[in-house]
Amino acid sequence: xxxxxxxxxxxxxxxxxxxxxxxxxxxxxxxxxxxxxxxxxxxxxxxxxxxxxxxxxxxxxxxxxxxxxxxxxxxxxxxxxxxxxxxxxxxxxxxxxxxxxxxxxxxxxxxxxxxxxxxxxxxxxxxxxxxxxxxxxxxxxxxxxxxxxxxxxxxxxxxxxxxxxxxxxxxxxxxxxxxxxxxxxxxxxxxxxxxxxxxxxxxxxxxxxxxxxxxxxxxxxxxxxxxxxxxxxxxxxxxxxxxxxxxxxxxxxxxxxxxxxxxxxxxxxxxx
Length: 272
Fold this sequence. Notes:
Layout: H1 11-26, E1 31-40, E2 44-45, E3 48-49, E4 56-65, E5 69-77, E6 87-92, E7 111-116, E8 125-136, E9 141-151, E10 160-169, E11 172-182, E12 195-205, E13 209-219, E14 229-239, E15 245-253, E16 263-271
Antiparallel strand pairs: 1-4, 1-16, 2-3, 4-5, 5-8, 6-7, 8-9, 9-10, 10-11, 11-12, 12-13, 13-14, 14-15, 15-16
């Protein structure tokens, strides 16, 4: 899933770049190790912001074997409260007799204000662990089987685990991800049984530019209505050698239940 920093820009474009660099290393050694670091002006995952439309710093480690096996880990800051206003708790100030202190001038009761977060259980960062196996049938056709665990160590009851499969023919990729387990309540999204369908068209352009057109649909296994949604977008990337890869991206959710405003964001990723 995160092989090639899929979340920092359009999936297919940067994935192809990362796999190409791994293949170069594998030509010399059966194992290839790589690291990446990136920054985005908005962390968008499957059409939905994970940082309240704010920036994120991201990075990961990957290992791949010439057999097609790969594994890695990836992390990013997140903000599911979406920068929501903080709650303020007022506590009355009591005198030695247990009575509320009254201002002698205004006659108003005296309180102390304590600011608390909107949701103390909302996580501040994401840590993903993933593994998979990719193989090519020929120069035009390849497949990938993967599993990924989405962990939110400082959150509560929000971790979940997916298994997935995808196929790529020339410039077209289609795939499916299934939520095999989750900490959420049985009838909630991201608990078990959710299906995510996705596809992308990824083409190379002159002068080391890349173009990706992508879309997906989330079918949640929940009794709550109004949570399934589709999304789509476009990404243009530019490989800049030692300076990494830059991208300009557009994402759009197609359901008013979510924030369906168009999202424009920029990203940068550097692999080592």
